Every structure is written in structure tokens, then in C-alpha cells.
Amino acid sequence: MCFKGARMTKRMGRRDWRWQAFWWHVFFLLWNIIHGQTRYSIPEELERGSLVGNIAKDLNLGLSDIFHRNLRVASEVGKQYFSVDAGKGELVVNDRIDREALCGQRDSCVLPLQVVAENPLQLHRIEVEIRDVNDNAPTFLKSDHVIEIAESTVVGVHFLLEMAEDPDVGNNGLKTYTLSKDDCFTLRVKEIENGRKIPELVLSKSLDREKRAAHSLVLTAVDGGNPVKTGISKITIHVLDINDNVPQFEKSFYKIAVQENSANGSFVITTKATDIDEGLNGEIEYSYGVHTPASVLAIFHIDAVTGDIYLKQSLDFETQASYRIDISAKDKGLPKMEGHCTVQVDVLDVNDNAPEIVLTSKSTSVPEDSNSGTVVALLSIRDLDSGDNSKVSLQLPKGSPFSLKPSFSNNYAMITNGPLDRERVSEFKIEITATDAGSPPLSSTRIIPVSITDVNDNPPLFSQPSYNVYLKENGVPGSILYSVSASDLDSGENAKISYSILDSKVQDVSVSSYVYINSDNGSIYSMHSFDYEKLKVFQIQVQAKDQGSPSLSSNATVHVFIRDQNDNAPAVIYPSSAALGSLSHQRMPRSVKAGHLVTKVTAVDADSGHNAWISYRLAEATDASLFTVNQYTGEVRTKRAVSEQDDSSQRLLVEIKDDGEPAQSTTVTVSILLEDGLHEPILDLRHKLSEPSKKTGRITLYLILSLASVSVLSLVTFLILAVKCIRSSRNGSCCMRRSGCDDYKNPNRNLQIQLNTDGPIKYVEVLGGDMMSQSQSFRSCMSPMSEYSDFTLIKPSSTTDFREVISVLDASLPDSTWTFESQQVS
Ligand SMILES: *[C@@H]1O[C@H](CO)[C@@H](O)[C@H](O)[C@H]1NC(C)=O
Ligand SMILES: *[C@@H]1O[C@H](CO)[C@@H](O)[C@H](O)[C@H]1NC(C)=O
Hints:
By secondary structure, the protein is mostly beta strands. The protein contains 12 helices and 56 strands. The longest helix is centred in the last third of the chain and has 35 residues, at 694-728.
């Protein structure tokens, strides 16, 4: 009904001018023919049949007139809203009367009616005023209304709202608007021409989308009727987002500790920011702050979407122990808003650095006589880790003569703590092990070479304490006699040896006139040709001296033994050519039997050993069948009985030869006279030998004297030996045993055996004949092993049995004539 009414109003508005013309015509017509005017007033929208007024009465018509005169109403407007009740003469409503349809917005609405009565035709005009009834509520064209307002809109801005329409008029028309209550909006009603009212929405408080994104308002249009009628319009206000919120981190400061050995790509921490704006204004992108150092950029990676931080590279506590990372969160609004936070990443130390041993001093040599506590090297220890991981302990190999003395922080002095001996260990390679207290501990080693410098603490030492040198007699002077050598354990100058010969006397002559030593290599040269028959042994004291400061030296003895050469031919003692002339004449009776001793050839050899081993041979004879010569004794005997035919004069040529190499020989001619009737030939011979000259008598006297003197000397010697033996008997060796049981200690034979027990060389001296002369003595060196065995001659390899030689001599010579008189021969 409302809508219909409203539409009708509009239609009427359009036809307004037609209605006006029509009513003007009616008015003039009525003015001319009607003299009385009847007017009724009824509200609109009465029920059909409702009474408007009693026309009959008001027009002074009787009831019968009504019926007979056919009283009826003729509407000037086409539609018949009223009718006349013929019975009562009343005007009743015939149809629904809508004032708004009939009169629109005009203030008065009067319907003119013609009441027609026939017989006679009579025309009456009446008017029915239609009074307005509030039957229309104000209405809005759109019941829903959406307004979008940006949240940044300033307070006080107006927004025009839709007006409501109310077809009713007067008080029943639209009176005012009301707005539901809202914090941000108020209503202002603006009046324009004709009293029309326009509602306006006023922003009374700034909007915040983040608090309230939408506001729902209800605009109510109120009319002035009674009862009041209202119309509503729903107003929805969408607050448009403005990027007015900064992304906000959950914490402004994040702190995390990460082990330095964390793997690449490990997760570190999540930073989270929120932006309460919507859409792009609330979409957050994480990134590093503007002034982020390169070190952070290199190591950390931030996920732009999630804000997670990862390791891009491994951490190193030793390079940087802590990082401060500025993170910014930006939304995608326009302009962008940015929030910040800081992440502190503390790197936790892991024992990943081995301790390092640094040698702070270079002097790593020390003299071998250094006292304990001498500083050898200075060390310092470094460990890049921290805490326990950097607590370092040092170890030296067990048994090394060094120890470590801590000085100020992490510095150590390596000192000696025992005796050093360069000759034992000349260089140490000390392996120092440094171990930290981390878990697991790390260690490193460093080898420190320590060289021990030499001190002259070792004397040169000869290869032997004494040397035995065997030297052939008659050697070439200037030839190398021997080379001694000494060594010195020290080094350098301390081991440079020079050799020298200490002065001593050999047969009253300085030894340096016999030998000469090469001071550089110890070669000893002879400066003489030695004669065994004059000098058999001598000692040289050599000294080796190093060039240290002070220098050290040692001595050694060189025993030089001259070896015999066969340089002497046997010398014939008997028959002596000097005593008996060039020919030795022997007489022999023809009556002798076979085996008769005719004579004995005796010879000596100044050499010794084989060189003095003499053998006899009959070289030539007048009659070789008559005589024979004993090879060993030189006895000349008859082979058979002499016959009458044998020549009275016999000549024998006896060759005497030694056993040397090459052998030397000599010959002697023996003349034998065969005589008839000569009976005691040997006695005769003895008589003849002792009788003829005074010289023989003198020799006998000398013999007696010398025997006596030898006996006395022997006695004295024995006494001395006895005393010596008693003294040295505690040492266990005694020569008396030897002298007590030795057959050769026989004064009758002018033999003296002397045992020398002093010194390293033991030798026996056999003295015969003249005590004053050394030249006839046989001296034999004996090794301690052979002390009590049969002594041998000087040539160690000699197999000659001296006893045999002597026994041969002993057996062959008459006691009285057996003497050593070879000094005359030599
Ligand atoms: C010592 O030096 C001399 C001269 O240079 C040389 O003849 C001799 O053979 C050397 N002796 C040794 C044992 O080398
Ligand atoms: C070597 O002999 C000399 C001379 O006899 C002596 O002065 C020196 O002390 C001896 N040296 C040694 C080490 O025995």
C-alpha cells in the first residue's frame, strides 16, 4: 500500500496542472448554479458503508423524495467513492478512499460531489473533505546501505545518507531521523527547502579497522503521526584498512646460545612479528637490518617468510664469540611499515683448537757441564679455546734430563735437571706434549732439539795401553816402525789429537834420537838401523794430547822388540886358528879303535834362535871313510881302525853352518897326524892343551876368579830375590819356586836366570859368562801364561829347545873347558 501510494503521488505530481484546471472549472460552475454549500469531513480509509452525513436532512429533502426523486451522487472525478443510502438518505462510503492517492502531498484534500435529484432535476453540490490519517510509514528506497570509509578519515567528515519518503502529510509526514548508537558516528539532520530533511552521518571519532573493521548502524526515519510510524535503513560501514600498524615482534630482544660446531644449515631461532593490518598491509617480510655487518650476512640466513634464522656457515668461537643481528620485519603496504628486533647469538666454545707450543727463544744448545737448572729454551703455550678448553698441561718424555719451570702466564722455561754428557747423547729431541682440559682433550706435540755442546772432559785414549812392536834388525832408517792411534770422545778441538814422544833414555841416549813420531797421525818412524846383538828391546812413551782448553792427555808405552836376523856367521872357538895357527894339528896313534874321539870342533853364533843353531858337517877329507863329524856336537871320531895304508897326515875340512834363513857358514880345517906307538892320546892331548903356554894358565886363573865372583853375585841375587819374593808373596807370584827347581841355575855353568816380575812384560834373562856384557844374554819374553813353562827364545815362533842346545854343549865339552867366550868372537 505504501509503495502504491508513493507511486500514485508521483503520478499525480506529473498530472498536477490537469487537476488544477479541472478544479477551476468545477469551482466556477458551482459558483453559478449552487447557492448553498454542504461540506463533510471524513478521515481517509473508512470502511465501506461508513456514514459520511445525512444528505436528505442537510438538503431539506424528505425521505420520500429520496426514493422518488432518485437521489444519487455523481462524482466529478471518475470514480464513485460515495453512494446514497436510499432508505435513510445518508451518504455512505462506497469505496476505499486513499487521501495520498487522491491528493498527494497537498495539505487539504476535498472531494467535490454533485447530488442529483430528479423530478425536478435539482443539482446540489456537497464537498467531502478527506482528512489525513497516518497510514504511511517513512520508507527508504534501499533497506541496506553500504558505505566504505578509510580508517584514516579525519573526524568531522559528513557522509550524506539516503532520505526517507513519507507520503503522509502534516504531522503524519516525515518528522526526523534517528541513528543507532555508535562510538564513531553521529547523525546530523540537515533541513533543506520545503522543510525536507537530509540525514548526514558525521564521523565523530577516528576509525580503527584493527579494533573494528565494520560498523553496523540503523537509520530510522520517524514521522509525526500518532502513533508514530518509522522506517529503517541498515547502514553498514566498512572501515578500509590503512597501513597504520607497524609489524610487531613478539620480543624485541632474542638471545640464544649455539655450539660452535653446529652443522651448516642448522636452525638457530625463530623471530616472529605480527601486523594487525590486513592484506598486503599485514603481510610481513623478514630481512636483516640496514647496518648488518658482512660477518653476520656471511654466517646467518633468515627466511624472509617465516623469520627463521639458520646457519649458512659454520661458527667459530675463536673468530667471534657473539653476534648481534638486527632483524626488520616489513609489511607490504604502501608505504611499508617496519618493525625491528635484535637477536643475540652467543657462540659456545667447543674444544676444537689444539694447544700450540711456541718456542720463544732460539738458544737451544747447552754445554755438557751445565749445572742443573740451566735454562735451555723458553716456551709459551697458546690455546685459542676458552675456559677449560684452554687450560693446558705440558708433559716431557720420561727420563729426559730436562724439566719445565712455569714462569708467568702460560710461559715456561725448559731447564736441565740432571747431568748431561755429550759423549752419550749429543743431541736431544725433546718431544713436549701439550694437552688441554677439554672434553675430549686435544693435544699437540713439538720437538725441541737441544744440542749439547762439547766440553773437554775426555782425555784421548790409546787403542791399547801398551803396544808390542817387533822390528827386524838392520832395518832401513826412516821406515814406519809402528802407528799408534788414540781417540777422543770429545768433538772439535777437544778431540784433535797430537802425538808426541816423551823423552826417556835408551842406553844413555835420548829415545828421540832413535824414533820420531808424526804428531798428526801417530805414525812412529825409526831413525836408526837397530842391531839385535846390541839392543834387543826398548820402550817408547807416547803421549796423545787433545787441543781442548785445558788440554787432556794420556800415555801409552810402545815396547819395541828387535828381531834377530841371521847376520852373524858361526865363529869357531876350537880349534882356534889364533891359538893354534891356521892349521890345527891333532896327533893320533894309529892303534886307536873305531869311535875314537879325535878332537871336537866348537863354534858359536852371535845370533839367536835358529840363527844360532849350529850344525857341523864334514865337508872334505883326505880319506872320508876314516873320520866322521857329529852333526850336533862337532866331535870328530874315527869311523874304523886305522890301517897301515892310511896316510899319516890327514886333513879334514869341517863346515859349520847355522840354521838361519839364509844360512851362514864358516869352515875350519883340522889336520890330524897319525903316529905310531902313542898311547894315552887324550891325556896327552889334555896335557898338551893345558901345559904349553902361560896364557892358558892365565885363563884358568880368570875362570876361577870369575866363577867365584859369579857365585858371590848369585848369592847376592838370590838374597835380593828372596827378599822381593817375601815382599811380593802376598801378590801371589814368586820367582823362588823357579830358582829352586831349575836345573839351569847352575853356577858352574855361569848361567843366571833372572825373572823380572815388574811391569807388563815378563821376561827371563839368561846370563852366561861375563856378567858385565849384556850382549851374550838370551832374553826371552814370556807371556804370563808361559811363565812356568820352558822358556823360549826371543823369536816367538821358534821351536828351538834351549835345553837341548845346552845339553848338547854340556855333553860334548870337558867341564873345565866349557865357557862362553864368544865375546871374543863377536
Ligand atoms: C801418517 O802420515 C804420513 C805422512 O803423511 C803417512 O806417510 C802415514 O802413512 C800416515 N800414517 C797413517 C797411519 O795414516
Ligand atoms: C804421562 O807421562 C808424563 C811423563 O812421565 C807424566 O808427566 C804425565 O803425568 C803422564 N800422563 C798421564 C796421563 O799419565
